[in-house]
Amino acid sequence: MSKQKNALSKLALQKFKKNFWGVFSLGIIFCIGLISIFAYLFAPDASKNANQMHLSIHSKAPGFKVEILKMPSDIPSNQNFLSKLFFGKNNTDTEIPIQSYEVNENILTYVEYASDGLKGLHKQIKISKFPNSNYKEFIDTRTFVFGTDKYGRDYLSRVLIGSRISFFIGFIAVLISLIVGLLFGSLAGYYGGKIDAVIMWIINITWSIPTLLLVIAITIALGKGFWQVFIAVGLTMWVEVARVVRGQIISAKQMQYVTAAKALGYNDYRIITKHILPNIFGPLIVISAANFAAAILIESGLSFLGIGAQPPMASWGAMIKDHYNYIILGKPYLALIPGLCIMLLVMAFMLVGNALRDALDVKT
Q1: How many alpha carbons lie under 13 Å from residue 240 in its C-beta half-sphere?
Q2: Pairwise CA distance, residues 319 & 209, whole Å
Q3: What CATH number does domain 2-34+156-360 carry, 1.10.1060.10, 1.10.3720.10, 1.10.510.10, 1.10.940.10?
Q4: Relative to the CA of 245, which of 26, 145, 152, 182 has its CA 20 to 30 Å away?
Q5: What's the predicted TM-score (pTM) here?
Q6: Could you tell me the residue ranges of all domains in the chain?
Q7: pLDDT (tens digit per residue) in 183-222
């Protein structure tokens, strides 16, 4: 039995490898996952949530360059390497975009950046304010690859860090939906009768409520926040898993291997977990891939409505909400860039789901 199962797994893997778009999409998902985990390592602005604002350079076009003067702070930063890597750096320094600067004796005179051809303010600072009087280390030319948002934050950094919300909500929502859906679906399909009737009644009631409306209700009940959105999305997606598991178990429990397991005296828990569920895992993988895409879209919609991840946390949906009016103001890329990122990630999950469906289809 195990040899046959291994042979079928290898055959499914070979069929999946032959699907170019499935493998390509899986590579995209892997790259986005890697970027989301180590976002602060790739982001030009490694401050927490990439929230370093420079209002004087707001809404600048991609490729914009400006000199940045960093004013050192006396406040110590008690952060270890792992904290900076996964949660961003607590930036205590003050960053000032400047147009020009000059040094006379022990005084650094600089002109603050001003757009639209205006002249910035002239300000001075003593060279001794910089460590070892080495002011050159605190002045650098910065390039904003994706430009800046309406608050003057580095848009590329916001996009990279915003991938965390969209990517991880898929994993957590699918995990919650699998746990709840497997529990209810297994009980309904295996025992039937009144248990099946009650669970199906709950499923039908939940199914009849619009998904976005149900998520909004759960989010309001749990409160606005990062984890609340993840839980809310997960609790609305379990019905699809439960229906699939119920149908598969109703068919599988008539099989001879289940009858043999009952004859050997195995308890119901072992029969369900050790014998039935491993044999119906194919459809679950396919529906989980589809739920990944659905969870990303739901979270984006919630963030767009303002009840998803809260500012200053970066989120692709929230970035679209903040800049959708720029589409008619001549800077559509501020809304299109996160929109394209959402489309790319959702399409990748859908293509992987289609490839898995074809690979696990025993009829082909």
Answers
A1: 22
A2: 28
A3: 1.10.3720.10
A4: 26
A5: 0.86
A6: 2-34+156-360, 63-148
A7: 999 999 999 899 999 999 999 998 888 877 888 888 778 8
